[in-house]
């Protein structure tokens, strides 16, 4: 039996019998892990009660090495329940979007410090009660960071084929299937590229390493925000191989 204690965010919970839950956590030390919480609904459980989506806690659990049976929770101490996020529908939707990205992109069973800290920073940004107008920038910071941390960043400062840097301020063509910007000379007939102005490309580059907690202070013109939304939607569609179900930023950006 291996015993582990780690910080974790709850990504999905399923009832199990009358008294138990199976919860998929994103743990700091071992990525996504599914754990059974036996007797979690009984009074006085040392397991912190039933788990809510995105609860942040410190958990101790047991797992049998090499076994396919579920790990078992021993103890859980809740650090944050994110009360502000739960009071606003748009923030809760933004939280559900995080769950969808993590379930699709975070690996199982490996240490994921960067992804874990980024998710945590995003939740703190939501908990700071950002204005509805600044929420898109917080979401862009999440998306940009997730693409960087999972190694799916697209090349935006030069052509992926000939390495030529774009000159002048004109619209670039970015093709997620080819890995980024493709210049006129290197474009082919079968092209699924999207247009990006150089200002939008610069904004996307600056959001790659942006802490979501700083994003609320940034204001971007709506025309650029519109392009950024389309860019992240397309880049993540390519990575996840399916459209996201949670539409956190409706067409209104
Ligand atoms: Zn080229």
- What global shape is seen? elongated
Q: Classify the fold: give the CATH topology of the largest domain.
A: de novo design (two linked rop proteins)
> How many runs of DSSP E, i.e. beta strands?
8
Rg to the nearest angstrom? 20 Å
Number of domains: 2
Estimate the strand proportion: 15-25%
Helical residue percent? 25-40%
Order of helices and strands: EEEEEHHHHEEEHH
Bound molecules: zinc ion
Please state the structural category.
alpha+beta
What is the top-level CATH class of the largest domain? Mainly Alpha
**Counting H and I runs of at least 4 residues, what is the number of helices?**
6
Low confidence ranges: none
Sheet with the most strands, sense and barrel status: 5 strands, mixed, barrel
Widest sheet: strand ordering: 1-2-3-5-4
CATH architecture of the largest domain: Up-down Bundle
Mean pLDDT: 91
Distance, first to last CA: 50 Å
Describe the fold and architecture:
32% of the residues lie in helices and 23% in strands. It is an alpha+beta fold and 253 residues long. The strands form 2 sheets. Strands 1-2-3-5-4 form a 5-stranded mixed β-barrel. The protein has a 3-stranded antiparallel sheet with strand order 7-6-8. The N and C termini lie far apart (50 Å). The structure holds zinc ion (ZN). The site of zinc ion has 7 residues, from loops. Zinc ion (ZN) binds next to loops.
